[in-house]
Amino acid sequence: MSQFKQRVFSGVQPTGNLHLGNYLGAITRFVELQNQYECLYCVVDLHAITVPQKPDELRSNIREVTAAFLAAGIDPSQHIIFNQSQVPEHAELAWVFNCVSRLGWLNRMTQFKEKAGKDRENASIGLYTYPNLMAADILIYKATHVPVGEDQKQHIELARDIAQKFNKDYAETIGMSGFGEAFFPLPEPLIQGPATRVMSLRDGSKKMSKSDPSDYSRISLTDTAEVIAQKIKKAKTDAEPLPSSIDGLVGRTEADNLVGVFAALSETTKEKVLEEFNGANFSTFKSALVDLTVDKISPIGAEMRKLQQDPQHIDAILRDGAERARLIARDVMKSVKEIVGFIQ
Ligand code: AQP
C-alpha cells in the first residue's frame, strides 16, 4: 500500500461532556501526530445526530470540540480542523459504502448493540450504519492512519474491510482508469499509550463516556480544579495499597485505570508509576493524581472557555478547514464516481 501518501484522519463527536478519555485516548495523540503526518481532524456532527440532539446544544457542542482541538495544541494553519457536515462528500461516499458493506458485517458491531440496547427496533438507521459513514470519513481523504481509543478498533477494521471490498469489486475499472492496484488504502488504527480505554470513575468495568448519566463517572475537560479533586477523591478503588508491578493490577480494574491515567498524564508508563507509588495507599496516590490532573487539564479547560467566547473565530476556522478538506474530498469522490460508473 506504499502507493498512498501517509495521511492521518480522526474525528470526535460533538455530543457534549468531552472527557479525559477522549483527551487521553484521542486528542493528545492527534497533537503528537502533527509533527509526523499531514492531519485532518473532524468534528463529526453527522454522527452526533444518530441519536437525538437539540439544535442549539449541537451548535454549541461543535464549537466546544473545536475549542478542545485548538486548546490542546492542534495547529489549524498547518493541519485541517473542520466539521463533517460542511463537506458533503462524506455523506455521498457513505451511500456508496452502504452498497459495498454487508449486513452481516454491521450486525457484528458491538457499539451498535451497546448504544441501541434493548430498544433496538427504535434505534435510528443512522446509528446502525454509523460505521459505514465512519469508513467514508476516513477514506474520502484516503487516510492511512487513524488515531482512536480502543473502543473504535472494530470500526476501523470494518473500514479496512470496506476499502478492500471496494478495491476488489471494482478492480477492473480501477485498473483501467489508471489508479493502480488499489484505489483505497487499508487504514491502520493507531491505538497507543497507557490510556487507550479510560474507564468510568464509578465502575471500572465501563468505559468513561459522555453519555453516562453520572457526572462523577468522568472528568470533563471544562471541570474546575475543585470538581476534578472531588471526582478523583470519590473515585471507586479497592482497599489494597498499590502493587510494585503491573502483574499486581490484574483483577483490580479501578486501580489499573487510575494508574493508567496517571501514566498517560505524566507521559510515562504504568511500570514507572508503580515504581514511584509501590505500597502507597489510595489517599496518597489520589492526592498526587488530583495535582497532576489539575495541572494538565485546567489550562486546557480555561483556554476552551476563552475560545468559546468568540464563536465567530471558531466558525471561521471550521469554514476554512472545510474548504481545504473539500479540495481533497471532491477529487476522491470524482474518481469514485468514475470507477462506479456514474455520469458526471
Ligand atoms: N473512555 C475512553 N478512553 C479512551 N478513548 C476514548 N474515546 C472515547 N471514550 C474513550 C475516544 O475518543 C474519540 C472520540 O470519541 P467519540 O466522540 O467519537 O465517541 P465515543 O467513542 O462514542 O465516545 P464517548 O465519549 O464514550 O461517547 P458516548 O457516551 O456517546 O458513547 C474516539 O477516538 C474514541 O475512541
Distance between the terminal alpha carbons, to the nearest Å? 29 Å
Helix/strand/pairing category: mainly alpha
CATH architecture of the largest domain: 3-Layer(aba) Sandwich
Q: Within the largest sheet, what's the order of strands? A: 1-2-3
Indicate the mean pLDDT: 96
Tell me the overall shape.
globular
Q: H/E order of the elements?
A: EHEHHEHHHHEHHEHHHHH
Return the domain count: 2
Number of helical regions: 14
Low-confidence stretches: none
| Radius of gyration based on Cα positions | 21 Å
List each distinct ligand once: adenosine-5'-tetraphosphate
CATH class of the largest domain: Alpha Beta
Beta-strand residue percentage: 5-15%
The largest β sheet comes out as: 3 strands, parallel
Helix percent band: 40-55%
Give a summary of the structure in a few sentences.
This protein is mainly alpha-helical. The protein contains 14 helices and five strands. It has helices at residues 20-33, 45-48, 55-72, 89-100, 103-107, 110-116, 125-139, 153-169, 171-176, 225-234, 253-265, 270-277, 282-308, 311-340; strands at residues 7-12, 38-43, 80-83, 145-147, 188-190.
Features:
3-stranded parallel beta sheet, 344 residues, Rossmann fold, binds adenosine-5'-tetraphosphate, single chain, Tyrosyl-Transfer RNA Synthetase, 2 domains
